[in-house]
């Protein structure tokens, strides 16, 4: 896991999800040989396009992140789970049409799902409808063997095959305030452009997209303005942007009590999983201690700390 420093959509995700991590993947070797991992296999987009999907599964050298002052953090996984994840990655190839694609619409969807969690205490009826709409859209756009389109954490969740629940979407407390300094109509126009450019009029996914957009634009303008700022500022460039200081993750605080949450054990689509949820579920031992480790650079003495 790592941060996309200075990237506005990543900042939006950080605010909603409660950690500095806005990108995740699977440590691997591009050559398939045994030995220490050298690459991060992840679903990403390098810039914001006019269409929904751009990029795909990429195998980037750890050094590419370090060159841009981005620390990498890893979670050791059991051998059988790691083997399963690597077998999942084996279906992708770093060639055109072989690497799948990055789905930007799922960034919007997971942000809306987190926003629904944020609203549960103050506007429970709206939160429920927003959560249901986000789940419906995530189901409609779920990655399949024929349509391999991913959000970064969705790829990891699929690879490890773990079921996540609604209760696990509740983030730790966050302190950062939203940034609102952009004309809101740009967000609405972007939503419409995505729908028109990508989804055919008779595609059932179109209705799911319209239903979520109607709730966001009609009943949660604060979120619309927030997301508009992120979209307008975002270049979706993973490398070479943002501050030159590596971000250090704070210890993952427990989420606040969610006693009023409806159906907390409800399974959620993998398209609603976030990097923080991966850390929360996979990155702790049986005593609750974090197993998250920083990957050391070659100039340092060992592989991780």
Q: In terms of topology, how is this protein built?
A:
Elements: H1 8-17, E1 26-28, E2 39-44, E3 53-54, E4 56-61, H2 62-67, E5 73-74, H3 79-89, E6 101-103, H4 104-118, H5 124-140, E7 149-150, H6 152-160, E8 164-165, H7 185-198, H8 204-219, H9 221-233, E9 267-268, H10 275-282, E10 293-294
Parallel strand pairs: 6-7
Antiparallel strand pairs: 1-2, 2-4, 3-6, 5-10, 8-9
Helix pairs in contact: 1-4, 1-9, 3-6, 4-5, 5-8, 7-9
Would you mind describing this structure in some detail?
Helix 1 (8-17) runs antiparallel to helix 9 (221-233) and helix 3 packs across helix 6. The longest helix has 17 residues, at 124-140. This protein has one domain. It has helices at 8-17, 62-67, 79-89, 104-118, 124-140, 152-160, 185-198, 204-219, 221-233, 275-282, and strands at 26-28, 39-44, 53-54, 56-61, 73-74, 101-103, 149-150, 164-165, 267-268, 293-294. The chain is globular. It has 10 helices and 10 strands. It starts with 7 loop residues before the first helix and ends in an 11-residue tail after the last strand. Strands 1-2-4 form a 3-stranded antiparallel β-sheet. It has a 3-stranded mixed β-sheet with strand order 3-6-7. With 305 residues, the protein is an alpha+beta fold. It is 39% helix and 10% strand.
